[in-house]
Structures are given as C-alpha cells and as structure tokens.
Batch of 4 targets.
Target 1
Amino acid sequence: MVISHPAGKYSAAPRLTSKSSAIELAARYAGAASLSASNASAALQLIPAQCLTGQVQDCFVLVDHSASQLGRAYEVLGRISSDPVDMHQLDDAATWASAALTDLTTCLQAVRSMGPCSSSREELVRSLAEASRHTSNALYFISRIKG
C-alpha cells in the first residue's frame, strides 16, 4: 500500500513494529487531516457566491464538521495506551474518521463538479483531497491496531 506522509511526500507504508507505533501514526494522520480540513474550510470561504451550488453550500457545514471530528480522533488517539488498547476509544476514533471521510469525499465530488468557476477552486480541491488522503491513512493504521 502507498500512503501519503503528513508532510506531503508519498512512500510505502511504514513498517509497524508495535501497536504503539500504529497508534502514533494514526494520531499523526488524523491531526494532519484535521489541519487539511481546516485549510479546506478557509479555501471554501474564498469561493464567490455565484459559484456556490446547493451541494457546495452544504460543504460549509460538512468540512467544518470533518475538521472537528478529525480533531476529536486525534485527541483520543493521542491518549490511547498501547497496553492494553482501549478498543472503545479506538472504535470512537474510527467512527469519527470514517464520518469525516464520507463528508470530505462528498464535498470533493461537489467541488469538482462545480467547474472552473473560481481560481480558488484548485486550492479547495487540493485541500479536500489532502484531508481525504490523510483521513484514509489514519483509518488504515487504526485497522492495523484492531488486527
């Protein structure tokens, strides 16, 4: 599997030596995804009103919700002990990240269908795609913890 690093570089998935390294990587990706979703929210504010279709207007709420959910996942993952892993907290983080990924994907599709209405569109697409990749990576590492 090829994943994107929070710094933006692509590489093969890091070798997991322990549950604690998987938890740490899941938390890092959730944090990076939250930041990227916040950047997407800021980019969304720059889209001119005439470009805002109903689907894109929904993204104001969805992207903010995603950033919040990913922030919650980041906080929980940062507190989880690896011995033993609190599966309830891990399940909560997975649920929040999964919901965020759904919202981000919905908005990415809506913005791509918007067409070249604004010069801010490309930055928004980039931020949404990055947030989606980081969220997917966080979910990957969460799934490795669950075994």
Target 2
Amino acid sequence: MLAIDAAAYRSPWRRTHPAVKGALCGGLLVCALSLPVWPGAALTTVAALGLAFGPARVNPRTFARVAAPALVFILTGAATLLVSVGGESAPVAWDPHGWHRALEISGRASAALWCQLLFAFTTPLAELLPRLSRIGVPSALVEVVALIYRMVFVTLDTAHRIGTGQAGRLGYASRRAWIRSVGSLGGTLFLRSYDRAQRMQRGLECRGYTGELTVLLEEIPLRWRALSAAAAVPLTVAAATLCYGVLL
C-alpha cells in the first residue's frame, strides 16, 4: 500500500463524509487559484497545513515526502520565468519582472498542492470512487479509474518481487547488469500486467459483468453542521483576503 493510502485509512477524518472534506479542500483550492497571491495563497497555505498537522494528524515526514516531487516540479517551472528567451541583446537574458510572475505561480501552485494533499491524506480513494456515480459522474469513467487504481498496487507488488529476485542474483551489481536487469524488469512487468488484465476481463465476463461493478459501500451520515463548519474555513479565508484588499 502506498504511504498516502495508508495515511488516509489511518486518518481520524476517515469517518467524515467525503462531501464535508470536499467542501473544505475544494473551497480552499478555489481560494488558492482565484484570490490574490498575497494574502490569499498565504492564508490558504496556513489553513491547509494547520488542518493537516492539527485535527487531521497527518505525519509531517510522510506529508513532506509525498509533496517533495510536486514542489520540485513547481520550483523548476517557476525558475524558467526568471529569464527571457529571444531578446535583442542576448538569446537568454535575465527578466527583471520575472521574479514577480515566478512568485505568483509558485505561491498559487504550492497552496493548491496543500489543499489537494489534505484531501488525499484524509480520504481513501476506494471510499470516494463509488460515491462519484451518485453525483452524476459517468459509471464507466468511475469503473475505469477504480480498476486502474487497483491494478497499480498489483503492478507495484509484482515489480517489487521481480526486483528483489534480480537483486538476489546480483542483477544490479554493475552498470551493465543494472541496465540489463531494468530492461528485463520492464518487459516482464508489461507481459504479466497484460496477461493479468486479460484474465481479469475473462473473470468479469464469467461473473455476468454488464458494464457496472456493484460494491458494498459503508454509509457515512452527512451532518450539516460539519458541512457548514467545513465551508466556513474557505469563506473566512476569502473574507480576510478581501478585507485586506479593501483596507489597503
């Protein structure tokens, strides 16, 4: 199981209705993307991280490890805005106004990232997907996502087993052996995944699959008080940002 899924199943917010967490994280996401970077994105970051490390009790080390690749991507993209290409003086030159755009984009993107991770660390995907059909998402799309989600774990487990076997036979002892082992791992993983997908399709057809997977879903009551409290957080962030702009 991936670290983010394990954290979601251990989260104290797991028994909270996904609509409540969707209102909270979705509202904060809208604030991060639509409000001014200062102080909108900053307040959104404070709210999302405060809820994640406070009531949601997300492990900071796991949170940082999951967020690191996305942050590197954001900073790499923002760094390209610091230079201009195709100028008259030089092909690549420093853009004096680029730092403002870089800060704006990195601020919005990082704030949006915290909102999405807060939702992911508190809501197991297996409990979210069946509820998407109830709000109008096409069943075929939900089932494809659910099957891919389950196959990801099977594929990762297969890759881990193959890699462990190769390492036990000194398959990664040298650079040449490493290249050969990685190529063999990729080819074997593709063939096994394709074969497993075919067997799963035949199994579904033998069980009378008609285009819809019916699964048991634990009913979680939707409490309007919790929904109102969740919506109050992004509304407070938006109100504080607008008040700051008016006072200035």
Target 3
Amino acid sequence: MECQSGWGQFQLEDYPVGQEIDLLATDAEFIGCLGAKQQRYESENAALGIQTSEVNTHLASLHPSELPPCFVAAGTQWALPTKLEERQTPHGAWKQKKEGGYTAVRGVGTPGSICYIGVKRTLEFQLHNGAKTGWIMVQYYKLVQGMDNLAIDEELIFCKVFQLKDEDCDLQLSAIRGDQLNATPLGECINEEALPPPGAGRQPTRSRSAVWNHFTKMHKKNDPRDVYAACPRCDGMLKAHSKDDGTTHLWRHYRMHLRAAATH
C-alpha cells in the first residue's frame, strides 16, 4: 500500500514547520515540535498583550489535498462538536477514527515507568455522502499539569496529513506507516510485549474508585468535567467522568488486559 502527503497550494503558514520534522517522526518528536511552536506562540502573544490568537485559520476550510503535510493550528479551529464527533468543511467532514478519540503519548522515561507528555487523535476525511477518501489527519496535543491531574491543552495543536492509497485498508497499514503511527491511533491495539504493572500510570487523585489505581486521570484544560482515563497497558483513553460515564467500562477494559496477559 502506498501513502502520499498533500502538497496543494496553500498560503504562507503561521509558525511554519517546513523541514523541522518529517512525517515519519515519532509521536514524542511531534509533541516536542509542538512545544517549541507553543513557546513562540506564547511569547509573541505576551509581547502583544493578548492571551490567545488565531493560527493558520485559512487551513480549516481547505480540501485535504490542499493542506501542508505538517502544520500547527489553533485548537478551536479543529475542535469536534461533542455530540457529532465530526468537523464539517465545504468539501466533506473530518471524523474521528475511534470512539473516545484520544491516545496517550509517552515521553522518554525509565523502563517500567509511565511518562505521558501529550495525546493524539486520528481523523479521517469523508465526503458529504459518506464516501471514504483515504485522507487521514493525526492531531497532537500537549499535556500540562493541572491542580490534581494532567490536563489536555487544546490551545495550539500539531497536525500531520497524508492519504492512504487503498481506501479499504483502514487498519492494515504498511510497516512504515504503522511505525509512523505507532500502531495505535487507528484501532484498539494492545501492547503485549511489555505490560506495566497495575498502578504504574497512577497520578495523585481524589477519586474514590479503586479502578484509578490502574489508570492515569486526565481532563481537558478548559473543561475539567471532560475527563479521561489513560490505560498504561495500551495508552488508550476512555471517557471517565464519574457521574456521566461511571467506572464499569474502566473495570472491563482493565480485565480485558488481564485476560490478554494471562494467555501469553
């Protein structure tokens, strides 16, 4: 299967990426590049006496083939309506590839430890009639330390865009492309090679349920009620507001990994 990037005609980018990073870079490298861009973004806003500013707003309405392969943008431009889980454009819609949307991204840490530095989610572009186009967007978000838990910072995001030539092979990536995506954003993948012990991803928390001994709690920086549980075994993230979502599905997910580990 072949993949290609979109190199259409586009305006001069704000905070250009250029040759600073390759499409085949690791997830941690994309988060690192985002961090560098965010430092510039924050320093320029501070010099202007403002807190937020628009970045690459002209890209949100373009066809995927017109987008640069890597770019940064204001998170509000690519936010997905909570109920619809899709972003409409004049050409079609960007839709989430999996329920829940996010996958946690690890930084460089000691063996057996969990060091989350960001999250990512994968979108696919479909025409208005629902036809798939093979265009994929992977979005990266930084994590910051909140009052009690890690918080997903949506102010500035990093996006990479490419096209899968075979539209019928959503989950059958080539070796190169699978390595690029770390094999997790396009499906529920279990890393059975090195399962961390229970509690390895635990963060200080006031949550009452014992299930939080086996997950890392995160929330949206601008919406503390939008809570997620990151699994230290597969880095998948599940919706986890105590009242809206409960904990039954977290226990089910945890036990799924226990069963998988017991069979290997």
Target 4
Amino acid sequence: MSPNPPDYSIKDLETIVTVDGTVKNIEVTRLTAPGENYVSLVLRVDIDVEKDGKKKTVKTIGKRLPLGNNEMRSKMAAHAMKNEIKFYREIVPLLTEFASTYEVDASEFFAKYYGSRFSLDDSSEDADRDSILLLENIIPLGYKNEDRHIGFDLDTSKAILKRLALFHSIPIALRSKDAENFKILKDFLVSCRPFGPPGGGPPGDGPPGGPHKGPSENGPEFPSGGPPNGPPRGGPPGGFNFPDGKHPHQVLLKTLKDIPELSPYIDRLSPLMGKMGPPGAGKPGTEPWGTFAHNDFWVNNMMIKSEPGKEISVKLVDFQICGYRSFATDLVFFLLTSLKNDVFLNNFDELLRFYYGEFTKNLKRFELDLELSYDEYLKEVEEAARDSEIPHSIFFAIPILADKNPAVDIAVEDVDMFSELTRMVENLNQRQKDKMVLLIKEASKRNWI
C-alpha cells in the first residue's frame, strides 16, 4: 500500500453532471471496499446544489478507471468504461422507450443516469483516466448488495429472476417489432465483446469481428478486429492468459486436482475448462433466443431493496462486459454463483422452472409469436452451461468468495491483476473449495459436464 492516500478527485465534474440548479460543492470519497471491484474504482459523489435559494444534496456514485498503472488492466478497464457509458447514454433510453409502448417501465431496472464523459478531450471517443460515469446513489433509498459470501435466499432469487426474465424479453421483442433500433442495440452489444490480456498464440487472421483460437489447442475463440471504435484491430494476440504464458484453465485445473472430492470429475471437466476465456467470450446468441446478456450477473451486480409487506425491488448494475448471447448464459451463471447453499441444494429446479414461467409469460406480454417448450428451454440452458458458463462460474467463484478487505487494493495500487488472480487460484480458501465441490457436483448431476 502506498504511504500517500489515493487521490479520488475528479476534474471538472460540474461540467458534466445534469442537476436542477447550480452546483455549489462536490465531495468525493471511496464507496466500495478493497477487493469488491477489479476494473473500476467506485466513489461516493455528493453534489450540493442550490436553486431559488434552496439547497439540497444530490447523492451519486462515480465510476472511474482504477488508479494503478498496469497497462493491460488499464486497457481492459477503458474498454469496459466505454461500454458502460454508451449503455447509459444510448441503450437505456432506447430500451425504456420501446418497453413503455407495452406499459413496461424499464427505467426501474437501473439507477438514474446523471452524466458521463470519455475524456477531458471532447473529441475523444475512447475512455481514458479522466473518464467518469455518474449514477444515482441508491443506497440512501434502501438498496444494498447482499453478502457475496452468502448469496440470495429463495424469495430474493425469485425477485431477481423475475426482473432478469423481463430484461431478457425486451430485446427479443425489439428484434421482432423495431428492426432499426434492434440493429443499434445489437451493434452495441457486439462492440462490447471481451477484451482480454495478451496470450501466447498468434494474432487473429480473420475479418473484423472474426474468430481466432486461444493459446491452447482446446482454447476458446476470441474476436479479431471488430466494429468501428472498438479495441484495436487484430484483437489481443492469442487470447486470455495468466502471466508466464499460462492459460487460466491449466492453472485452475491443477488446483482442482488437489481437491480430493473432485477427483471423479477432472477428466470430464478438462475439455470444458479449455473453453475458458474472458466473461462473454462464449458462443454468440442466435435467433430466436439471442438477447442482451449482462455476462457478469452475480451477487455484487444487483442491488436489493426489501420492505415488509412490499414486493422485493431489484436494480441491475455494472454493464461493462455485456454482449449478444442466449438468455441462458446469465441464468446459469447466476444460479451457479449467487444462491445461498441451502437454496442451491433444495430449490435449483424450482428456480429454473420459475424463470421459464416468467420468460414465457413475457413473450406473450410483448405479443410475440414464439413458443418455447420446457424441454427446449432446458436444452438451451444445458448448451449455455457447457459452452461457457461452467468454466465461467468455476473461475469466478474464486473472486466472489475471496477474503474481504485483502492486503492488495487492486482498484488503487500498481498491481498486475492477472498475477493477483493467479495467486488466488493457486491458494484457494475453504469457502472457495467448498463452492467448487458444490457447483461441480451439481453440474455433473445435470449432465452439464
């Protein structure tokens, strides 16, 4: 840890914030604890505003790039920041306007947007260290994150899946009802494709947006090139590697082999783990079930408000690595990573059935001529699990269940995020080991591995 306190100040913030009145003062402090965010620094930003002699404080949160100087982490964070700014500027209004024609208030899914910038250079279309995204701080309204070490109870899980099913249904309806705006949405989602660190293989040789293989024979496909204003043409050479040319699945498999309870599953896990890449790097969505995938739908990325006698309210947050994929990707990842253990063991099928009921109900709500039988639905879920979400869930169980308040503050310090992740993978705590066993046994029972 540096002996000097981090500088959280934000230059010229008053020029981008949209408030009713004159900005008189801005106070910026740290919001989230060390270890809770990897590719952004989340700040509490309280803005004192005056109008007609009356004063009030507008409570917001500011997301900015991490303060450290690791080059690859900074590039990944800048790409993620650009994605999220465009989401709130362009995509939220598009989805909200369309959904309103069916009397759905999609603005309730998200925190209120207060302003953003990519850079102090107004002509820049890429996020840099002066980029900032301002959103309403919904904690004072009663919203909170649940404990990532514990996960969600059954009632809260159903409230989240109800929200997720409606969120997934809107883009599917948009495709059918408004081709022009659907193209805007899909182009955005394609541009959000994951941007990983350099790997050991050659750069991609396909056309913009085409695939190339990762550093191992069984490695995942990664984008080459891409749409205008995306990451540099050619994509990351080789794909997603830890330091010293190690592919994550090799490091993680070695660790899993040391857990005795997992020995019966290792041979079946190996080919699936070979598909592991950055979140969202799996198979693109195909019609009719391709939609807006969050790609990081776990405990920390939804905020919950529970009041006696009222329906549980859910806000979705952190749209940094979204993509165009099957609805089943978010569903599987959530179920495998974010439930309380007793809910995971006793209510997994109930929650699968619950999401199906909500999703198919919404297809009718949007007057879509689409049918999805429960068997077809389960096949879509299994394909998502096998394609990407088993390795995604196994790997992300490690940061989700990592110790709180770690010695290294990855959002502030000059650290190599991938070296730190390597250290975590090679030194699992008991919570992480227990979750691996629980998750992998359940996946095996369902023939997902």
